[in-house]
Amino acid sequence: MVVGAGVIGAACAEALSAAGVTVTVVDRSGPAAGTTGAGEGNVLVSDKEPGPELELAQASRRQLPILLAKLAGELGQADVEWQPKGGLVVATTDPRPLHDFAARQREAGVTAHEITAGQALELEPNLTREITAAVHYPEDGQVQPVLLATTLLSAVRQRGGQLLSGVTATGVSRNALLTDRGAIACDHVVNACGPWAGEFAANAGAPIPVLPRRGLILVTTPVKDLVRHKVYDADYVGAVASGDADLQTSTVVESTPAGTVLIGSSRQRVGFDDTIQVDVLRELARKAIRLFPKLRKVNVMRAYGGFRPYLPDHLPVIGQDHRVPGLWHATGHEGAGIGLAVATGRLLTELMTGQKPHVDPKPFRVDRPGLA
């Protein structure tokens, strides 16, 4: 049983079913109804410090196009709007932190090209002329997150698995998942509840400190060829890595195949308060205009927000919980879940089925010191 039909739960279910495991996915709402449906679809290596999360991201980035090609053959199609368009990180102040970060990433195997301001403008002609440094990351990409999750779940169903929407998981007993519709017999339960994973884990008798971290995104009306890559300022990396509960914003701008421009990003720990704050939207808009001045004349069509599953040491939990027999976790990816999903599903499957892990699972274990 996989609890949660977001992209992480879907990726775990797909990998398990591909390994021959009979899988049922349950979700109290439906596919991609939570964090996944409120995301941008980022598949990034550019925003991660060298270490376990970057290694997981690199593995996932390598595997994603291979998996999509496999699913296209199996399902007849697998259009998730995959765009390996690359990313561009720019600085408008001191360039040294950006250069130092890129150097550390290159040592870890990331392709990171330091380019001049003129070269950056060739890649993004509408970018501000005030940039002092830029790094091009050709490995960065983007998908439509809802399409990715539903495609993965389609593969699960085609292999004989089930999706039970409108079913709320309430706990775990020996050899069963407890739900509001009664107990469902199973050998293993995967907690892929995203920001709600802490609540489910506590109900299962194995608490983990997952907290919701809210983010807001602006969506413009369609505009032609304004932004070609995923572009963000150098402050984004610091905001991602911060554990501060207070509001943090950094500029992220990217287009979609439909022509709309997505503008982020904000991070704030306010529990599950889903209020759309106009002052936060204004700040996102102001910062985006500083990066792309032509956005000043583009209309905003809508705004949306969601909750990311935050853990204090900024690493997901992937693997078995030895406090409760049969309980597994795949959560805590915060805003990187889309990009980490494929490798997460594969790693969890390898651990559950006794295969050799393709990445080191130790940093993601539930009993690691950072979660004590």
Question: Can you tell me about this structure?
Answer:
The protein is of the alpha/beta class and 372 residues long. The chain has 2 domains: 2-79 and 144-210 and 313-371, FAD/NAD(P)-binding domain; 87-138 and 211-310, 2-Layer Sandwich (D-Amino Acid Oxidase, Chain A, domain 2), CATH 3.30.9. 31% of the residues lie in helices and 25% in strands. The protein has 9 helices and 19 strands. Strands 5-6-4-14-15-16-13-17 form an 8-stranded mixed beta sheet. The chain has a 6-stranded mixed beta sheet with strand order 8-2-1-12-19-18, sandwiched between helices. Strands 9-10-11 form a 3-stranded antiparallel beta sheet. A hairpin with a 6-residue loop joins strand 18 and strand 19 (327-331). Helix 1 packs parallel to helix 5, helix 1 (7-18) runs parallel beside helix 9 (337-353) and helix 2 (52-75) crosses helix 9 (337-353). It is globular and about 60 Å long. The model has no long low-confidence stretch (mean pLDDT 94).
